[in-house]
Predict the 3D structure of the following.
Amino acid sequence: MQFSRWVAAAAGALALFGPTVAVQHATAETSRIVVAQQDKPSGSGTINSVDAAGHKVNMTHGPVAALKWPGMTMDFPVAADIDLKALKPGAKVGFTLKQAGGGMYEIDSIKPAQ
Ligand SMILES: [Cu+2]
């Protein structure tokens, strides 16, 4: 939705100011989007339990600096494309988060801790 609004705005800018301005705007906007993707909130933790039916895990995680979260033990919904069979209780993991519906954060990627 926001992106399509931006496309409409970019088209408007193109009409008003000519192609040079619109291209500069597109470049700045694209780099901002890439930075946002690289800056996904991330942290590390230990899996306590896996709820396959609910597609969520209980995890004791360290601080998530990007969200100003302290370390805690909590349930996390897990993105639908992540295979929960790869996650075992006791596993130490690194993860990234994304905001899902309702503003809740869900695990967007997860891998064994280094
Ligand atoms: Cu937490």
In short: The chain is about 30% helix and 35% strand. The beta strands are 42-51, 56-61, 72-77, 92-99, 105-112.
